[in-house]
Design a protein that fits this description.
Blueprint (H helix, E strand, L loop, with lengths): L7 H4 L4 H5 L3 E2 H8 L3 H11 L5 E2 L5 E3 L1 H15 L7 H7 L11 H13 L3 H14 L2 H19 L6 H25 L6 E5 L7 H11 L5 E4 L7 H9 L3 E5 L6 H14 L4 E4 L1 H5 L10 E4 L2 H10 L8
Parallel strand pairs: 4-5, 4-6, 6-7, 7-8
Antiparallel strand pairs: 1-3, 2-3
Length: 315
């Protein structure tokens, strides 16, 4: 992983000896690993996973070994292992105990019950507990995407499904949108433009894409409702984004397939990506658009843009 230069306020916390030793403050470690400071402190206090050095004023300092240990923790989290089991895995090579689904089945159950009851506070509490311990990618892979898939199956033909769907989508957009807004205020440079191509507002997959990108230190601009076919090109012209990510959980209509996407493809000089079920549905039809990348899920979209080197802050 390429190390970014220390911000001036971070470097000011360190003395000459710390700088010479390559020690990093918590904000720089968060930038390099994608694990926010709240989660790093929770791993330290609750589980003893990371034990940084301290300055005379009590500021945490991390060395390269700490950064590598954090990366190892992320590897286990992405495999679905509970954070409470990881210390034994790292320190003693012990096999993970308990359910193969780790903590996720229980967490999904809490969220499902809260959605069924339209209980916003319970939904907040369960989500916030998970967010304090797990970075966005494991949360997306093991909690939120499986939760959405399970709910979509449950909602087929069920009375009250529309109410639950609107409740959850409103809640999810509110929570993820707040994180995106907070991150955007601290980031500079050209954004990734995310646009909803479906007829459904508040697409959960679109907001999951925005959240993952935003937490990777990438500014984002989200168009949550579909815009007229020709105006996406206008958005690209005015925003000058570093990439364009289109999302739809529905099949695209003929106008989008025959006019909107080809026009955008022809006029877009930056990476262009279609994500979500629409990418699976229209994979063969879109093969002629050679510069249009396809991603089945928000995690695939995040991986593609990461591979293109688009997360470093633009000048």
């Amino acid at each position: 992983m390429a190390h970014l230069p220390l911000a001036a306020d971070d470097a000011a916390e360190l003395g000459a000896e710390e700088l010479a030793a390559g020690l990093l403050p918590i904000r720089e470690v968060a930038r390099q690993t994608g694990v926010n400071p709240v989660t790093l402190r929770a791993w330290e206090r609750r589980y003893g996973l990371i034990m940084p050095q301290r300055t005379a004023k009590g500021h945490r300092l991390y060395g390269q070994a700490h950064v590598e240990r954090i990366q190892a923790i992320l590897t286990w989290l992405n495999r679905g292992v509970a954070v409470s089991q990881i210390r034994d895995l790292l320190d003693h090579d012990a096999p993970p105990a308990g359910s193969a689904d780790g903590p996720w089945e229980s967490l999904r159950g809490e969220l499902l019950e809260a959605v069924a009851s339209l209980a916003e506070r319970r939904l907040d509490d369960a989500y916030n507990r998970a967010l304090a311990l797990y970075p966005p990618q494991p949360l997306c892979r093991h909690l939120l995407l499986p939760l959405l898939a399970e709910l979509e199956q449950r909602w087929q033909g069920q009375f009250g499904a529309a109410l639950e769907r609107v409740f959850l989508r409103s809640w999810l957009r509110s929570r993820l949108g707040a994180r995106v807004y907070h991150n955007n205020r601290q980031l500079q440079g050209a954004p990734v433009l995310l646009a909803n191509l479906s007829e459904l507002p508040m697409e959960p997959g679109l907001w999951l894409c925005a959240w993952l990108l935003s937490d990777s230190q990438c500014p984002v601009e989200v168009l949550d409702w579909s815009v007229p076919a020709g105006e996406l090109n206008l958005a690209v012209e005015r925003l000058q984004p570093r990439a364009v990510l289109l999302y739809s959980s529905q099949a695209l209509d003929s106008a989008q397939l025959r006019r909107q996407l080809p026009r955008l493809h022809a006029g877009c000089a930056v990476p262009l990506l279609l994500a979500g079920p629409a990418a699976q549905i229209h994979r063969d039809e879109l093969a002629a658009l050679e510069r249009l990348a396809l991603a089945d899920s928000p995690l695939d979209a995040h991986h593609y843009l990461h591979q293109r080197g688009l997360f470093a802050a633009a000048p």
